[in-house]
Design brief:
DNA polymerase, domain 1
Length: 143
């Protein structure tokens, strides 16, 4: 009987060790799978390879010459700028740092001194200095 009890406790020790190893293995596997899934979910480019090796089907054959395509892309990318020689007070108010009073001054200055020759001519308007001009320069044009 004593022998049987010893062998039974020995078997239980072996089983419990293997049980803990199996549990640890499962936990590690789940954690690694979660990490892999997270990387794949939030940064899929890692699994696509180099971008220049990814095939993208192109059903349309270009009928234009490469120079025409380049010019078309450049014109599409050029943002529309507000022409300060033609803009109304309401349109001028859409510019940063330009309120209703400043818009009136710009229109009045334009009427009194003719059209602006360049964007830098806005410095002549009372209340527009270098800092204000730099803020609105990306949004305006004289053409």
């Amino acid at each position: 009987m004593k022998e049987q009890k010893e062998s039974q406790t020995k078997i239980e020790g072996i089983v419990s060790r293997h049980y803990y190893r199996a549990v640890i293995f499962l936990i590690v596997t789940i954690l690694l799978g979660s990490v892999f899934w997270g990387i794949r979910r939030y940064n899929p480019a890692l699994f696509l390879g180099k971008p220049d090796l990814i095939a993208v089907p192109n059903d349309e054959q270009p009928t234009q010459k490469p120079n025409q395509i380049k010019e078309e892309i450049e014109t599409q990318q050029k943002p529309l700028l507000l022409n300060i020689n033609l803009a109304t007070e309401e349109e001028l108010q859409t510019l940063p740092s330009i309120g209703p009073q400043m818009a009136k001054r710009i229109v009045q200055f334009r009427k009194e001194n003719s059209d602006f020759k360049s964007v830098n001519d806005l410095i002549g308007v009372k209340g527009i200095g270098e800092k204000t001009l730099e803020k609105i320069r990306p949004f305006i044009d004289v053409d």
